[in-house]
Amino acid sequence: VQLQASGGGLVQAGGSLRLSCAASGSIFHINAMGWYRQAPGKKRELVATITRGGSTNYADSMKGRFTISRDNAKNTVALQMNSLKAEDTAVYYCTDLRGTWGQGTQVTVSS
């Protein structure tokens, strides 16, 4: 399966963005999907994951601000990001946690 991320952009601090990841095939059989991000000069880090059954896991700094969701019928995974901060600026990647990555979408938060 190939993954295509979209929805990034420039937003002011405190604003919101919704990222979407579209898979080229069915994700129903994929146990867990997730989002990672990589800021300039930093390592790629976990943002959130979601299992096929809907169980979610978030990095501590995203809890309460970000929400990951998944639509197995539409083969999409979304990341709703609220109360954005300048430190959320990064390229965001979706992944099937099995080695397949989307191309990344840039999120820039101005302070």
Topology:
Blueprint: E1 3-6, E2 9-12, E3 17-23, E4 32-38, E5 45-51, E6 56-58, E7 66-71, E8 76-81, E9 90-95, E10 105-110
Parallel strand pairs: 2-10
Antiparallel strand pairs: 1-3, 3-8, 4-5, 4-9, 5-6, 7-8, 9-10
Strand content: over 45%
Overall shape: globular
Written as H for each helix and E for each strand, in order along the chain, the element string is: EEEEEEEEEE
Please tally the helical runs, counting DSSP H or I stretches of 4 or more residues. Answer: 0
Low-confidence blocks of residues: none
Describe the structure.
This protein has 111 residues and is mainly β. Helix content is 0%, strand content 50%. It has no helices and 10 strands. It has strands at residues 3-6, 9-12, 17-23, 32-38, 45-51, 56-58, 66-71, 76-81, 90-95, 105-110. A hairpin with a 4-residue loop joins strand 7 and strand 8 (76-81). 31% of the residues are buried. The mean pLDDT is 97.
